[in-house]
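Narrative of activities, Objective 1.

The group set out to show that a structural description can be obtained from nothing but a protein's sequence at a throughput compatible with the screening campaign. Below is one input-output pair from the validation batch, recorded exactly as produced.
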Amino acid sequence: MKDNPFPENIKKIAIAAPAGPCPETDLIKTRETIESFGISVTTTPNAFRGTHEKYFSAELQKRVDDIHLCWQDNSIDLVLCARGGYGSAKLLPHLDWDLLRSRVLPVMGLSDITALHLGMLSRGVSFAISSCVAKNFMGMLDDSFSFDYMKKSLCHGKNEKIVMPQEKEIKTVKDGSASGSAVLANLTVMASLCGTDFMPDLSGAVLFLEDINEPPYKVDRCLNQLQMSGIIGKLSALVFSSFDGCGSALELEHIFMSCASNVNGPVLSGFPFGHSFPCFSYTQGRHITIKEGGLIYTA
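Output recorded for this entry:
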């Protein structure tokens, strides 16, 4: 039997699909495993509805309705997003932010869910957790680093050094020390929110970026967008994480070094966060510290 990463106060989890479609069959094992922990699992009414736009899980209003339902149903203790893909950003102008501020409800996910998380940060909604999606839940359970930090993301924090998995090596692109609110994001999704009022103020933030299967010039383009929007220069630190399928190590190193010259603080690369395991989980906006030599401490 798998170990349970959820604290005792999580009695019911809703699986929602605010972005791309996810076949219900892909979530059978995830659902059965969570239920084996003694936790009730429900899926939102439109999670598998489908639409003529095959890259969405359902029509826009249906996806908005599902998010609202999660807040309206006080028996739901946590929202676990089914997958990323594309579509979360389209929800942002249509969400009832007063409703979402009415109670604390953890929303877990990453990749395209970055848009929903950034919107929550910009509107003072608690609390967004960057962590694995339901589709990849079983992989998280099988990886000790990923499991530990998903579990810790739902508990009261304590100051401790992040011990990297043996197969991962943090590289120092630009040395230094910094601390601030952690923001974990998919690069291309974050860049798409530049110029909107759903981009939170990142002054003094420690930004962790990841992406997957984007050619190097697109990685460079999105970083340039963040730079020209004034975001990079406001950060206290920048941490490049997993960029699987985004070019060679040499190409990425050159892009990261170029970007580092615009950061007023330390810049690291190779951190285990993104679409593959091991994957770090953390509450968006929670304090984090970087010390010289690439050491990272949670709060």
